[in-house]
Amino acid sequence: MIAILKQGTTREQIRLLIEWLAKLDLDVHVSEGAEVTVLGLIGDTSRVDMDLLGSLEMVAAVKRVSEPFKQANRKFHPKDTVVQVGDVKIGGGHFAVMAGPCSVENEEQILSVAQAVKDAGAQILRGGAFKPRTSPYAFQGLGQEGIRLLLEAKRQTGLPIVTEIMSISTLEVFAEVDMIQVGARNMQNFDLLRELGKTKKPVLLKRGLANSLQELLMSAEYIMSEGNENVLLCERGIRTFETYTRNTLDLSAVPVLHELSHLPVIVDPSHATGSARLVPSMAVAATAAGADGLIVEVHNDPSHALCDGSQSLTPAQFSELGGKIRKIREAIV
Amino acid sequence: MIAILKQGTTREQIRLLIEWLAKLDLDVHVSEGAEVTVLGLIGDTSRVDMDLLGSLEMVAAVKRVSEPFKQANRKFHPKDTVVQVGDVKIGGGHFAVMAGPCSVENEEQILSVAQAVKDAGAQILRGGAFKPRTSPYAFQGLGQEGIRLLLEAKRQTGLPIVTEIMSISTLEVFAEVDMIQVGARNMQNFDLLRELGKTKKPVLLKRGLANSLQELLMSAEYIMSEGNENVLLCERGIRTFETYTRNTLDLSAVPVLHELSHLPVIVDPSHATGSARLVPSMAVAATAAGADGLIVEVHNDPSHALCDGSQSLTPAQFSELGGKIRKIREAIV
Amino acid sequence: MIAILKQGTTREQIRLLIEWLAKLDLDVHVSEGAEVTVLGLIGDTSRVDMDLLGSLEMVAAVKRVSEPFKQANRKFHPKDTVVQVGDVKIGGGHFAVMAGPCSVENEEQILSVAQAVKDAGAQILRGGAFKPRTSPYAFQGLGQEGIRLLLEAKRQTGLPIVTEIMSISTLEVFAEVDMIQVGARNMQNFDLLRELGKTKKPVLLKRGLANSLQELLMSAEYIMSEGNENVLLCERGIRTFETYTRNTLDLSAVPVLHELSHLPVIVDPSHATGSARLVPSMAVAATAAGADGLIVEVHNDPSHALCDGSQSLTPAQFSELGGKIRKIREAIV
Amino acid sequence: MIAILKQGTTREQIRLLIEWLAKLDLDVHVSEGAEVTVLGLIGDTSRVDMDLLGSLEMVAAVKRVSEPFKQANRKFHPKDTVVQVGDVKIGGGHFAVMAGPCSVENEEQILSVAQAVKDAGAQILRGGAFKPRTSPYAFQGLGQEGIRLLLEAKRQTGLPIVTEIMSISTLEVFAEVDMIQVGARNMQNFDLLRELGKTKKPVLLKRGLANSLQELLMSAEYIMSEGNENVLLCERGIRTFETYTRNTLDLSAVPVLHELSHLPVIVDPSHATGSARLVPSMAVAATAAGADGLIVEVHNDPSHALCDGSQSLTPAQFSELGGKIRKIREAIV
């Protein structure tokens, strides 16, 4: 870490600063230039509060030279991590599509969608049981019963399942779930991340609506620092001024995350765009950008006129998309 | 709630949509115009998923006519809510300043800052015990011991205390805390909000970095819908492209929240700007805009050269600010 | 256009509003519902100031049912527009790659890059002569001399050229330029757009850093409303909170613009990401998303160690990218 | 300027980089630390393209130590600039309120509003003659005739006038205008800025919707570098994800701009919020934050029911606001 000091900083101030940094077990290499003095901080700088350091009157700027994440860092783990979810491998050349309804509604629905997405080529079944909803008055999901239904669908189709957790207190309900999703709103629910780090379960960690890629990696680090290396990073759109799409899908996240980290990168085009019409083109674009997998909403009742055009694809649309994705995968290898 | 249907929507599609809405206990008033058909949804529309409705192929736009929040809504509670924190009243003409260090570090520190901010005019002591940190390797706060020290400072100074909760599992540690803070990162940790709604404790609810004012009010609604009406809304800066300040303080939130809700509105200029130099002008601006209170960082060691210029004010600067705030309060009444 | 009136609006207020709208040659269809009154505005609503209408006290919301752009609108021109730039066709199934250096520096440079990008498969040569620079002290481009050099490169390679205009006053200097670029900063320089509308030259219109897709289409409409239909829309990244990339490339712009408009859509991955390492994956992703073309920076001196890693590709990297793009094109057809 | 090189950069690469920097007339001070090598660039670094330098493969980060603006920089001009507009002084303790209608509509309107805002305490009359409109089909203002009417209002009331320019080609029409406004969309229309720099007229430079404060200062620098020091900076809201207000008024811009620059800072609460209800609280907040002036929309026809609630205040509301502003001014001195 580098701290650039303002012109006019006195030797006494520098001495005090070095003394303070020494308490954090850091050595300091001082370089006095014609215009500025630069401090090189040597040691474990991940403990340094950059915001605090940068806010000191004498400090013009602070710059990390090494990233603050370690276990998620490709520098220290050059090889791609391959996460195993049931029998399905993701990352390191293994590509997986997760599909299913937004919410689990009832047994008939989840069983029929599960079969439909399996037939259309999905490797993992997704479905919401605990639903984070902006309004306390909205449907909050079937909860534990929803997970029971997902497990039933797993038994019937053989597809491993991924579903979202909202609170540590429900962790034991997820005992047989193959992969646990942490939603965008909980990306910095650090206590939840730590608890998931104590399990060995694969965690699908979604990027928060206003979180930087570095913050996403730091949240992965929370999970990994507790011993769980099975983390998948998921780009699902960020909040911007544009209102035509629900969020703005940041596909440059795919090559950036691959550059910075060895963890698999998944893209969710359904939540990002909020419109089924846009899902196929964003799904193929994500694949072309090098994503290791996709998570796509497919709804339950393709015959039901009402649902056409929602953010969920019909099984037929999803099946057609699968064909394109395979061709793109071949094109970029 | 109004749904505007696209041109070319068939009667059969409209019939199916009305049928679906009827299942949500909504009556529908159909108005066919020359260019569009407009549906007026009558009944408890707070249960309707606007995103879903708006994503239907036949729907051009959905517009709420009534806000989705009820208990936080000024329409149904025209009078300002006054929240009592210890002996201190906030809202409805009562203005309060909360001050203290970013983190509780040790007994000497918290006791001396507590006395200093009391002497300088603060009515409530703030201080972090459980600290949400981006990095798992950073100092996470003193936790339970930090709360014990805050309570000791309360005993010695008589100031009520406010401190942040990060997880439901620690709720009992907050038994003697006067006001519980929900941080920006947990604004949509709905399980936590619900549990706090089951207490009667005042809750200082901070706006998330990328959350709209309506989402802030919906999170307040989560707390209130469980029976706790003692909610204070806190604007603390949002994430934008500007990098000179840490976040962008959205002061128009003050009149907007006052218009929409009866709850007190607090402003945190310290975290929003990230720089002590900007805190005083933003604190007086917030007061002039009509805020019901401020929460300000004041650090522990005014004699310590290192800390000058951080986001925390010295007790002397804080005391001077107090004088200005009182003059502004008189000017706007 | 629909205006939803607030509850409690009096008949007299409605009468006044209808009177005012009548002055804009609009008929009004009034629909009084149980909760709200909805006005349907019939006629040429493109002249209505939505902001003004929406800001009236009595109006709860205003919603356009028809888009405010006409000539750029796919509804009225269902067939894809094909723009011809020299011998090169773009749009309607024709895909083109434009490449070249950020700035024209000297004759040797532009001639060598032009030949290199031609050899590597580019169909159009790009290069900056008039450069919009944040600082008045930075290099502002070679200006007219730069355009002379581009024309020389065109003569030697046969590649048509595209270069940016900054001011109407230089329009005649662009007489032999094949396609004129309007940069992001000038996307709403309406006087410039109108003048370009009076020519028949293809215009590459870049999206502003903070402009919505609808605003981009309205700016295209400025050009088209003066009689020039040869407009290409260019997504080049928007400004968000993320700092790892220079801007956030919004690839969902590609399907959205194709849905709303018949104009070709070009993507600029170089300026969006600011890093050559990210250009190839974003270029193939843009192609997979359905873009009609790409504009890519390729630098002049592949042997020069200094430039490696800047936002420009080397000719070799660009040539390799060309092969991938062709495979992606085949995969998505 | 500091460039931090990545670990593993070779001596040969460093030599090449220093050679390249030498061509820009920069001396380089090399400091090799244990982990990184830091280059200190000495000389006129305002010509260095930071983006380009930072994008080089070997460069980990670039940091300006000195700001890239000079004439606008408080470091080199510690004393506040006072701009004189007609008889009115702005800056350096002089506070001015500019008021008037959004657009000049006709003689009767502008004369009556001019008299009304004068009676209510405004010192400068504002009014749009050339209007930048998103749609080519919307009313584009009265143009030259609008300026003639403003000058007539000036003659009758004695108020100096400020109005917006959109194109260099109309500059001579502004000969008798007291202050020229550059709108948000033209903040980086560099050719226009340069031409205005060749006049001596006060220029009210509005911040672009997505422009940083540093970019605003760089645009001021464009004007000043041509010899015109009469520049006023205007904060008018930035584009964010929040949709309740039209834009997000960034009031921290006031102290930040005062810290960085000696130029007066004006705030426009009308365009920022888009709602007359929010204008008074934001106007007093801006005053409390230390703004040197306000520009406020006041409409023409207070008796006309239609306009109530638009973004414009009535003369009565504006007059009441004036009283509050005076009290705030007294409170903060």
What does this structure look like?
The structure is a homotetramer of 333-residue chains. Chain A has ten helices and 14 strands. Chain A has 333 residues and is α/β, with parallel strands linked by helices. Chain A has two domains: 2-63, 2-Layer Sandwich (Alpha-Beta Plaits), CATH 3.30.70; 83-332, Alpha-Beta Barrel (TIM Barrel). In chain A, the strands form three sheets. An eight-stranded parallel barrel of chain A has the order 7-8-9-10-11-12-13-14, surrounded by five helices. In chain A, strand 8, helix 4 (144-157) and strand 9 (161-165) form a beta-alpha-beta unit. In chain A, helix 3 packs across helix 4 (144-157) and helix 9 runs parallel beside helix 10 (315-332). The mean pLDDT of chain A is 91. Chains in contact: A-B, A-C, A-D, B-C, B-D, C-D.
CATH topology of the largest domain in chain A: TIM Barrel
Task: Name the overall outline of chain A.
Answer: elongated
Rg of chain A, alpha carbons: 23 Å
Mean pLDDT of chain A: 91
Give the helix level of chain A as a range of percent.
25-40%
In oligomeric terms, what are we looking at? homotetramer
Most extensive interface, chain pair and sizes: A-B, 58 and 58 residues
Counting DSSP H or I runs of 4 or more residues, the number of helices of chain A is 10
Summarize the entry for a quick read:
The first copy, chain A, has helices at 11-23, 50-55, 107-119, 144-157, 190-197, 213-224, 253-260, 269-273, 279-288, 315-332; strands at 2-5, 27-32, 37-42, 59-63, 83-85, 88-90, 96-100, 124-126, 161-165, 179-182, 203-206, 231-235, 265-267, 293-297.
